[in-house]
Amino acid sequence: MKLVVAIIKPFKLDDVREALAEVGVQGVTVTEVKGFGRQKGHTELYRGAEYVVDFLPKIKLEVAVVDDQLDRVIEAIQASARTGKIGDGKIFVSTLEQVIRIRTGELDHDAL
User: Fold this and answer.
1) 58: how many CB neighbours lie within 10 A of its CB?
2) What InterPro entries has UniProt attached to this entry (predicted)?
3) Are the C-beta atoms of residues 87 and 39 closer than 8 Å to each other?
4) Where are the beta strands (DSSP E) in 15-112?
5) Is the dihedral of CA 60, 64, 69, 71 positive or negative?
């Protein structure tokens, strides 16, 4: 089992959610986050004063998947989140040791 964490642009959330549903993902956790990467923020003009916005709004998606679903999930996120511009985001994949469904006590693959 793998945990896929993706940081994407906020306006791409619906596209990514639809793409994940098409490849069979049944559950996604979504968190509004702020951060920066190579783009290092940007400057904005507010009431005539220029100021630097260091942390940009992003969306963090977390998806737990079985190993044979991993490649399809990564491809779906990449294809639907890509704009071709800086700041499209990142995908992180890590191994899940154990998954437990609280309500039923189901373990691992059954809990997903």
Assistant:
1) 20
2) N-reg_PII (IPR002187), N-reg_PII-like_a/b (IPR011322), N-reg_PII/ATP_PRibTrfase_C (IPR015867), N-reg_PII_CS (IPR017918), N-reg_PII_urydylation_site (IPR002332)
3) yes
4) 29-35, 42-46, 49-53, 56-65, 90-95
5) positive
- Does residue 49 or residue 11 have the better pLDDT? 11
pLDDT at 97 over 90: yes
CATH code for position 106: 3.30.70.120
Residue 41: left (phi > 0), alpha (psi -120 to 50), or beta? left
Cα 19 to Cα 73: distance, rounded to the nearest angstrom: 8
Is beta strand 29-35 parallel, antiparallel or unpaired with respect to 56-65?
antiparallel
**Which range of residues forms the domain containing residue 43?**
2-111
Structure confidence at residue 14 (pLDDT): 97
Q: Please tell me the total count of domains within the chain.
A: 1
